[in-house]
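Contributing new complexes? Match this layout with adenosine-5'-diphosphate.
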Amino acid sequence: MKGKFIVLEGPDRCGKSTQAKMLYNQLVARGKDVILTREPGGTPTAERIRQIVLEPGLDVRPLAELLLYEASRAQHTQEKILPALEEGKTVICERYTMSTCAYQGYGRGIPLETIDILNKIATRGTQPDLTLVFLMSDKYFTQRGEYLFSDRLEQEDLAFRQKMRKGYLEMIERTPNAYLIDADKNISDIQARVLELLKEHLIIV
Ligand SMILES: Nc1ncnc2c1ncn2[C@@H]1O[C@H](COP(=O)(O)OP(=O)(O)O)[C@@H](O)[C@H]1O
Ligand SMILES: [Mg+2]
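Output block (do not edit by hand):
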């Protein structure tokens, strides 16, 4: 592929959108042809699927949820990511295959082998040139969120977040070109680390 594919992964509120926008602006300022996109969503069809997946209170069972995410990914990859990479563009994408392994696999307990197969089909084997995995201490979760939880939900969420954290750490170990980003740090320190990794991977000079 001619272009470079950069993926930002990690749980909610750890700063992915913040850093993705800053990175986009940095690359544009350096004269790169770059697109910023996200999952689930990224195209009109995939955004419609995103609405179903994220609608509060809708009964979506884990397997259906997985297949919806993969449907969204298949559309997004074919319609937007692959054409951009073929044109030599840099693609920055918030969330990709690793999020599905973390949430539906480590979180909800669907076998990782099942998810890996579906990920390969939906992505047509496309792999990021660089995966940045943002992880922060749990104490910042409530601090950085605008939402209020009941105690019960907050407890459930804590256990779920811990399972996912373990999952992300394991996946970093076995994924080529994947790096842990310490999301506890301040916004400019994180940005400096992100740019350093892009330099190491010859995406920028
Ligand atoms: N390094 C940081 N330190 C403190 N707050 C941050 C940091 N990065 C992002 N935030 C804030 O935390 C909240 C969640 O950030 P966001 O980028 O939307 O996370 P995500 O996209 O991963 O859910 C936002 O209010 C954002 O301004
Ligand atoms: Mg975000």
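Reviewers usually confirm one structural detail per submission. For this one: Residues 12-18, 144, 186-187, 190 surround adenosine-5'-diphosphate (ligand 1) (CB under 6 Å).
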